[in-house]
Write a structure and sequence with these properties.
Layout: E1 6-10, E2 19-22, E3 36-41, E4 44-54, E5 69-70, H1 79-91, H2 96-102, H3 106-109, E6 118-124, H4 126-130, H5 140-151, E7 156-158, H6 159-165, H7 170-178, E8 182-188, H8 211-223, E9 228-234, H9 240-253, E10 257-261, H10 268-278, E11 283-286, H11 292-303, E12 309-312, E13 324-330, H12 347-358, E14 361-366, H13 371-378, E15 382-387, E16 399-404, E17 410-411, E18 414-415, H14 416-427, E19 431-435, E20 446-447, E21 464-466, E22 471-473, E23 480-482, E24 495-496, H15 502-512, E25 518-521, H16 531-541, E26 546-549, E27 562-567, H17 571-574, H18 581-593, E28 604-609, H19 615-639, E29 646-654, H20 657-670, E30 676-689, E31 692-701, H21 704-720, E32 728-733
Parallel strand pairs: 9-14, 9-15, 10-12, 10-13, 11-12, 13-14, 16-28, 19-26, 19-27, 25-26, 27-28
Antiparallel strand pairs: 1-2, 1-4, 3-4, 3-5, 6-7, 6-8, 17-18, 20-24, 21-22, 22-23, 29-31, 29-32, 30-31
Helix pairs in contact: 1-12, 5-7, 8-9, 18-19
Bound molecules: adenosine-5'-diphosphate and zinc ion (ZN) (2 copies).
Length: about 750
């Protein structure tokens, strides 16, 4: 009698552990690790992944179900990635099935073949080239598309390219094909952006690197082929991207693939363009702006070795790359590298694990490295590479000053002194950028008579007034309602609006400078597709003279005409309840300041503050980010906060207030261990959110091993606690905020 074959399978469910299934006798082959199979799970059919094949199970054979269907012959996930995901599941104490399936693009999660699909390409016919688009006046959309195609450098377009610039283009496109002005051809999808790079007329120049850049690039190039982490610390405009490009060229020349992770999608178009102009290899860009088919295609191209460079956001870290030889993380301090829900991983930390497993170098780059990375430099774990000169373009670093606004006349969040400066710069034909990390018109509506304020009935938060539609909106749960004209409590019509958001600044400045183009860039003004790109262009070309924005404006953009940066509410970050609050504040100030004077003219940065004597602001201004970080790290050391200790937050929320407390209390009773400090159960800083009460339990230890060892026992026990059924709970390893 032959032994039954038992397959251990990870399924996409929030349950710890793997599940045993039998290989049916009818199976045509024995699947290997990394192949997908279909199984019945409870009442559902799920796509699962084979983790191991054996002949034993801890369950009686009679209880095991057979696999319903084999999907793959070849594994979709290579061994090295499964190993990384297994490591991540164990480090983040998250169910392996959920980890594996959140690393796959959606179409693969639902069982699609890991093959390239066909995509339609549209090109002008001879008639299309000759036809005057004005003759299509009666169908303006068709006319616009035709003229677009006639005026672009590429000879053909794909759906992915059209999607980035057009909405609802399919039906006018069909009409143009019917009129024989265009032809549509089906082609196998190739890498997303490389295709039109050889055709683009303008190529970005390759520079002679300056000495610092050359040294940095050489150090990394020397390390190709073995594991080493580099931290490239270079002020904005010092030429980090140029270093990346030259290192990548070296890696590509020896037939290696390169993975580049970037924080935000808004940065990707500019960066990918620069990459595709310089690197003449297929590049796949993977980010949340893609549809499922595009994402699938980029992933498959990378995994087959067709795409040689992958540029993507956080989750692109999990792209299979058989010849991966280098990982670059740009703006490594950026909080978006940490996933904040579900499988809460940090892409920076996992990039290091992937690199160590593969024995390849990692290059982290930032003007304002996170404290963890700096500490790793001090401990000789990372090699520090520095670019201290903005020498690349000859631009001078901006002059930064504090503007004491105590008792100063202020209107709509801007002091008179700052307003004067704004006028000065505008008169000298400079561009002005105002930074304020708050959307909407005012963060609060208040009755001057009785003190009534607008609070969200589902959250411990105020409702923000949005003036353009006169609505009050909660920025935490999305609840909104019309703004009242009189106080609902005392009926007086004496409602006032303390504080200012970007919308208010925009309106106030529009009134002051009616002839100027003022562009507000925040989540509210860039919701529509293509809008952000349009606005960034307006900013870059100088068409908009005043830019007002939230952190969207602070990151990585190059606005050569900006000569004045005004930071309107730096004080917010000075008194944050979060131990990372000051670190983030400093990073933000430096990053925003870096937008000034990138061009030929010197820049100026003015920080409005009510606390001009604050030691942190002083250190930052007088010793720069490095000095500031040294001092702030010393404070962290004294307080035993990360990176001098290891932190985990157990979070939970429930409709009823006591349920969360009871659950965490039960956890606390179970969590006894020497060398681990427990704080809580405590209400979360925002106790109520979207109608649920939130609690947290904070665990801190000097020894990571101790903490993780203990969690390994606790987490499975937690899921079995009775009180766990009444709450939603999660574990956040190395939390990035305490919120
Ligand atoms: P960072 O990424 O550090 O902000 P970039 O790589 O974008 O800096 O460089 C800033 C500007 O300087 C860019 O316009 C870039 O083209 C230019 N640049 C970079 N390195 C050099 C160099 N060695 N010589 C001349 N120009 C350079
Ligand atoms: Zn009132
Ligand atoms: Zn709310």
């Amino acid at each position: 009698m032959t032994h039954p074959i038992i397959i251990q399978i990870a399924v996409p469910v929030p349950l710890y552990g793997l599940f045993d299934y039998l290989l049916p006798a009818s199976a045509e082959h024995i699947p290997v690790k990394g192949c997908r199979v279909q199984v019945s799970f409870g009442r559902k059919q799920l796509v699962g992944m084979v983790i191991s094949v054996g002949s034993n199970s801890s369950f009686p054979l009679s209880k095991l179900k057979p696999i319903s269907e084999l999907i793959d012959i070849e594994p979709v996930l290579p061994d090295d990635l499964i190993k990384l995901l297994e490591w991540a599941a164990s480090y983040y104490h998250h169910p392996l099935g959920d980890v594996i399936f959140s690393a796959l693009p959606k179409q693969l999660r639902s069982g699609a073949a890991a093959e390239l699909k066909c995509e339609t390409h549209w090109a002008l016919t001879e008639m299309g080239r000759q036809t005057d688009s004005c003759s299509l006046k009666r169908s303006p959309k068709q006319a616009a598309l035709l003229s677009y195609l006639q005026n672009m450098p590429e000879t053909e377009l794909t759906a992915s390219q059209l999607n980035t610039n057009w909405n609802n283009w399919r039906s006018p496109m069909r009409a143009l094909v019917e009129k024989s002005l265009l032809v549509a051809t089906e082609k196998t999808q190739t890498a997303t952006i490389s295709e039109y790079s050889p055709n683009t007329t303008q190529k970005s120049p390759k520079f002679q690197l300056n000495q610092q850049q050359a040294d940095a690039a050489n150090d990394v190039i020397q390390a190709l082929g073995h594991y080493q982490t580099f931290l490239l610390q270079g002020i904005t405009g010092s030429g980090k991207t140029e270093v990346y490009l030259q290192v990548i060229e070296s890696a590509l020349a020896t037939n290696l693939q390169v993975l580049v992770l970037v924080p935000e999608i808004s940065l990707t178009p500019q960066l990918t363009r620069r990459f595709s102009e310089r690197l003449h290899v297929p590049i796949a860009s993977l980010h949340s702006g893609l549809n499922d088919t595009q994402r699938h295609s980029g992933w498959v191209q990378a995994s087959k070795g067709l795409a040689r460079v992958v540029i993507g956001t956080r989750s692109a870290l999990f792209t299979p790359l058989p010849e991966l030889g280098l990982i670059i993380l740009d703006e490594e301090h950026d909080a978006s590298f940490k996933q904040q829900e579900g499988f809460r991983y940090h892409a920076r930390d996992l990039a290091l694990v992937r690199a160590r497993n593969k024995n390849i170098p990692v290059l982290l780059g930032s003007a304002t490295p996170c404290f963890e990375s700096l500490e790793n430099v001090y401990r000789d774990q990372y090699r520090l590479l520095q670019l201290t000169r903005r020498g690349a373009t000859g631009a001078q670093p901006p002059k930064v000053s504090l503007l004491d606004v105590c008792r100063q006349p202020m209107e709509d969040g801007i002091s008179e002194l700052l307003l004067k400066k704004i006028e000065e710069h505008l008169q000298n034909k400079g561009q002005v950028l105002l930074f304020l990390n708050r959307r909407g018109y005012a963060p609060l509506l208040m009755c001057h008579e009785c003190g009534w304020t607008t609070v969200c009935h589902r959250c411990d938060a105020n409702l923000t007034l949005h003036q353009h539609n006169k609505r009050l909106r909660c920025h935490h749960c999305g609840y909104e309602k019309a703004a009242p004209v009189q106080c609902p409590q005392c009926q007086h019509e004496s409602l006032i609006l303390p504080g200012a958001g970007t919308e208010r600044i925009e309106l106030a400045l529009t009134e002051k400078f009616p002839a100027l183009v003022i562009s507000r860039i925040d989540r509210d003004t860039t919701r529509r597709k293509g809008e952000l790109d349009k606005k960034l262009n307006q900013a870059r070309t100088g068409e908009a003279q005043i830019l007002i924005g939230t952190q969207m404006l602070a990151k990585g953009h190059d606005f050569p005409n900006v000569t004045l940066v005004g930071i309107l509410n730096a004080d917010q970050g000075l008194f944050s309840a979060d131990f990372r609050g000051t670190e983030h504040m400093a990073q933000q100030i430096i990053q925003v300041s870096g937008r000034a004077g990138r061009g030929e003219r010197a820049g100026e940065v003015i920080i409005q503050t009510h606390h001009p004597e604050h030691p942190l602001l002083h250190t930052l201004l007088h010793t720069g980010y490095a000095g500031f970080a040294k001092q702030a790290l010393e404070e962290r050391r004294l307080a035993s906060f990360p990176p001098y200790s290891y932190m985990v937050i157990v979070r939970c929320d429930a409709i009823q207030k006591e349920h969360g407390q009871v659950f965490l209390h039960e956890c606390q009773q179970a969590f006894t261990y020497q060398g681990i400090q427990l704080f809580g159960p405590l209400p979360a800083p925002m106790e109520r959110r979207a109608g649920r009460y939130r609690w947290q339990l904070i665990l801190i230890s000097d020894e990571r091993k101790k903490l993780h060892g203990a969690l390994g026992q606790w987490v499975p026990a937690m899921s079995k606690m009775k009180s766990a059924n009444k709450v939603r709970w999660s574990i956040d390893i190395d939390p990035q905020d305490m919120f």
